[in-house]
Amino acid sequence: xxxxxxxxxxxxxxxxxxxxxxxxxxxxxxxxxxxxxxxxxxxxxxxxxxxxxxxxxxxxxxxxxxxxxxxxxxxxxxxxxxxxxxxxxxxxxxxxxxxxxxxxxxxxxxxxxxxxxxxxxxxxxxxxxxxxxxxxxxxxxxxxxxxxxxxxxxxxxxxxxxxxxxxxxxxxxxxxxxxxxxxxxxxxxxxxxxxxxxxxxxxxxxxxxxxxxxxxxxxxxxxxxxxxxxxxxxxxxxxxxxxxxxxxxxxxxxxxxxxxxxxxxxxxxxxxxxxxxxxxxxxxxxxxxxxxxxxxxxxxxxxxxxxxxxxxxxxxxxxxxxxxxxxxxxxxxxxxxxxxxxxxxxxxxxxxxxxxxxxxxxxxxxxxxxxxxxxxxxxxxxxxxxxxxxxxxxxxxxx
Amino acid sequence: xxxxxxxxxxxxxxxxxxxxxxxxxxxxxxxxxxxxxxxxxxxxxxxxxxxxxxxxxxxxxxxxxxxxxxxxxxxxxxxxxxxxxxxxxxxxxxxxxxxxxxxxxxxxxxxxxxxxxxxxxxxxxxxxxxxxxxxxxxxxxxxxxxxxxxxxxxxxxxxxxxxxxxxxxxxxxxxxxxxxxxxxxxxxxxxxxxxxxxxxxxxxxxxxxxxxxxxxxxxxxxxxxxxxxxxxxxxxxxxxxxxxxxxxxxxxxxxxxxxxxxxxxxxxxxxxxxxxxxxxxxxxxxxxxxxxxxxxxxxxxxxxxxxxxxxxxxxxxxxxxxxxxxxxxxxxxxxxxxxxxxxxxxxxxxxxxxxxxxxxxxxxxxxxxxxxxxxxxxxxxxxxxxxxxxxxxxxxxxx
Lengths: 399, 399
Fold this sequence. Notes:
The structure is a homodimer.
Chain A: H1 4-26, E1 38-39, E2 45-47, E3 50-51, H2 52-68, H3 73-89, E4 100-101, E5 107-109, H4 114-131, H5 134-150, E6 168-170, H6 172-183, H7 190-208, E7 209-210, E8 215-216, E9 219-221, H8 230-233, E10 234-235, H9 237-253, H10 257-274, E11 286-287, E12 301-302, H11 303-320, H12 323-339, E13 351-352, H13 372-390, H14 392-398
Antiparallel strand pairs in A: 1-2, 3-4, 4-5, 6-9, 7-8, 10-11, 12-13
């Protein structure tokens, strides 16, 4: 059902002929360093603030392309230009990464957000892989240790919850750690890698995944229980779906077929739960008890949700051959290709309303940068190649 | 053009026969005190958290009805039940009001939000007016002094902005103070009232209002300049429109016709800027330079925006007789009456998508409670009565 040859070419071309050139052309700030990420539909810069999440993710993307696709010097130069800006401007005195900077690099928003550190660690880890430069390794390692140190109190002094009344833990950090630890594996002691992986898989698959409802919760009580509150009820289907390919990658690494099977089954439950039967696409947020949400953007269709889901379904199909993965994959591909890529100026729209029309014209902003689309197209391209190799007979059958 | 007799009756009936009974029936928590505000379409409680904004606003609403409409003991009892819960549970040790509590009253979210204090002061001020009980006056006064003390650093330790890099001031507090100071006038020294009014009018009309663009900004630089940033560019048309009736009330109090005229002109600019020519209704957020916004909910149509705009246009018409106010008022009335009231279960939907369809089924939640709709219907009812008295000839003319 998946025409892996054709799709592999499509994803590769999207990555190398459309998305990467878009960011290389419009994003570098050649005067002040770092990248502009707030780009209008046509690439024009509409705001110059620099968000550490997106600066770091773009460093990672260009380093990843250099490591995994081709040793193009312009890609390495783009990654290192971003890294220089981050090293000069990105950290507070305690080594924590700010949330945002002005164009010139003056700190704007305090280091309240631990994911700035996660993406910085990821960036410098990949840049070490690309260059062998030990300075990058040190930054990645120090940042990773800070994350582990902060993880129980991730928001620190900026946490507005009164301690003790409703202690919750959030899905995002264990989920990101499942991916980050693989990214940093060459830099860390093996026992720390194993412990982090074990804890991550346990959190995602045994604590946040709720078999009774077939969904992943965004927040659970610290004792593992369900919290019947706005935070406790919220589901972010794309978040859980993205986590499932992180889990599949971990399972693949340790040759755990049963874990791959479980991650695939959960992914199928999540995509069924998240799909909008009326207008197509996957909802941004849902309430597990079908109560009204506090997220006014709940019914919107976001770029990252859709491409991450495609990766998960493609990997699920690759590893299990389950026809339901192929079927859902095709459905996601069709919706995504019809709605997100901009036929006029290239790259992807980020935010669609429920009906699938662009809600914002931007190609990049405060949260969308050079990350999910290129990472996703790369993952999809390589997964299509693997499917092509693993299931040649299947392809013949559909001709 | 405004059929004030007919509309006055409509608003009065909406208030007394629909909205007030809805909240009296479904909202009181007779076991634990205070109010449930998270109410489904049919009044069913879907979440039991208690948000200080909404607890206080509902106390104010029932006290206001008791003072201004009729001495119904059930209204006073409802107000005092909410006040008891607030007094027992609402404040931290330093006297600042928490943001939210559990159903039982355990503090959930710290006192990071100065508007909790604004609405608490408003509630206890009105309850003092209703009862003459000096304990309520003391709470209102102490809370008001705390607000003045905190106003320059409203978010306190929870402020994530790095000091000095981009110092901004926000429109909401000066705007709310314009209304709050009139609410608390009987409790405050006259010189404090005058100073607060003067500062409020200056902030709203001379600093946040930008004559070149004909709009009100949500955030400006502390030196009064425009900040070309996400926060600096954002417009909330409903916010500015609501402020214009606060200004008209202040202007009326001091007999300043020129100020009423200016507020009316600004209101007409704001409604023209905020109106969605394609689907009707007023946008939630816009960018003054037409750049993409960070608010994903920017194109939604919210209940409070529409009823507050109706009040402003009605008062603008009452005081100036400007036909454009009457015309816009009719347009707002038609849109609002077609889209917000729920014909099946009563009360109003709060959140519509751009096309005007309900986005959430709730009647009350974390931000919508027993406040804007009843206050608005009361204001509209009384303004229609005043129009009827001031322009009797006009009414004859349209018959």
